[in-house]
Design brief:
It is built from five helices and eight strands; from the N terminus they run ββαααβββαβαββ. The protein has 182 residues and is α+β, with helices and mostly antiparallel strands. Strands 1-2-3-4-5-6-8-7 form an eight-stranded mixed sheet, with helices on both faces. Strand 3 and strand 4 form a beta hairpin.
Length: 182
């Protein structure tokens, strides 16, 4: 088993606000539900996990001790969650690959928080033994692609009409990746 090294860090954002970035903990259940309930419908359409479903939130909270799954949150001084990111190491012959997810509250976008969270989760994935990190997102999510491009990610491919949103509309998915050293 790999020893966990993630720690809490205080980050000053480019808009002057500060935030604490730390691992998801058991006591974050209510804050994570509130985070999900605060996401706009447009965001919810495109999320792989339903952050408004209490069963999904319970699954995420319960997985915080999983060996191959790391979850990081950004919290305000009042312990509200304003961003969530996760890295999941793949099984089998892709064991060296970690797939990441990232969602930032609308009020905290364009503040540098997305970049701080992306940097953190890539480092956490590397510390957890990943040598390649991937991220999948809708082709229309150009701001998210820009964040990962700044971290050295490149587009490996695009899957046509591969995702279906909660309204039944099909969307193209972009797969990006970067190699990291362990």
């Amino acid at each position: 088993m790999v020893q966990r090294t993630e720690a809490e860090s205080r980050v000053a954002l480019k808009d002057g606000r500060t935030i604490t970035i730390r691992p998801l903990m058991d006591q974050d259940r209510v804050a994570l539900i509130s985070f999900g309930l605060g996401l706009p419908k447009n965001d919810l359409l495109y999320l792989e996990d339903d952050f408004q479903n209490p069963e999904i939130i319970s699954r995420l909270i319960n997985a915080n001790a999983a060996e191959n799954w790391r979850q990081i949150v950004a919290v305000t001084d009042d312990d509200s969650i304003v961003a969530y990111t996760a890295a999941l190491r793949m099984p089998g012959w892709s064991y060296h690959v970690a797939n990441v997810r990232l969602i930032v509250d609308r009020a905290w976008r364009r503040s540098g928080l997305g970049m701080a969270m992306a940097q953190t989760i890539v480092e956490v994935a590397r510390e957890n033994g990943a040598t390649k990190v991937t991220v999948e997102m809708l082709a229309a999510q150009t701001a998210g692609q820009a964040i990962f491009r700044r971290l050295g990610f490149v587009v490996e491919g695009q899957l046509a009409r591969h995702a279906i949103d909660r309204d039944g509309n099909l969307h193209d998915i972009v797969l990006m990746s970067v190699f990291v050293r362990t």
